[in-house]
Design brief:
The protein is mainly α. It contains 10 helices and no strands. α7 crosses α8. The two termini are 75 Å apart.
Length: 273
Amino acid sequence: MNALANCCRHFPKVAVNVAKSRYFVREYAVLADYNIKWVRPEKISITKPGKSGDLGITVDVKSTDFMLKYEKSKELQDADDIVKRLVTLEFQPRRETINARREKIMELVKRHNLDRGSAEAKIAAMTSEVLQLQEYMENNPRCTKTRIFLKELIEKRKKMLKKLRIWDYKRFEWIIEKLNLIFKAGPSVPGKACRKDALRKLTQKHCDNIMKEKFDAYKEELKEQQKIFFKDKLEKLIFIRKEELQLGVEPTVTEDDIEAIRKRLEVLYEPTN
């Protein structure tokens, strides 16, 4: 009992000494050891072309073009030049130019001349309006009403593209190419970018790169060992065949076996890109 009491009395001192000598202290790696730095991504407004996916459509709308209602008018063919100029887009409100641009964009994808209700025509009309509003927002960035309407319009078009992608993927690809759009699917887990989740992904990516580098180095090491092995095997097979022929014994090693090993050795010595 006295020995046990002495051990219990001196145990705290022993524990302190062990802790000071760092026998039971576990060291954790920090992010600074891995050279991982997280920078908060810049927030881009959804009304910007880079966020909405609009790369722009080249549509030839000139100020000398006639209004939509007067394009095929027979009376204008015999009219005076001054009368013709009065019905051009140059002397009309800006809305007429926007309408002409919308019609030309819709002609790229609509199914027939009177098509207004198909998914392709609606998406084309929305795209024309989005492009026009984005140009307006560049000159009037503080117009809250237009910004909210533009955001809602982009979300509505994205919803229609998402449905079209599920229903008919070929038509979806075709309309994306015709309207020069980039469709960006939403994240699987919606939410804002935060430091904790981003650092987890960066750490996992860093660990994967370390594993890949080690695997690549191990593959190169095995490849060098293969070179030595097949080179030694080739020399031994040649020696065995030569000795068997000299002794008059039926050779167990054929020329095909030696040639196969030689080709394998040439493949190993080929430079890799």
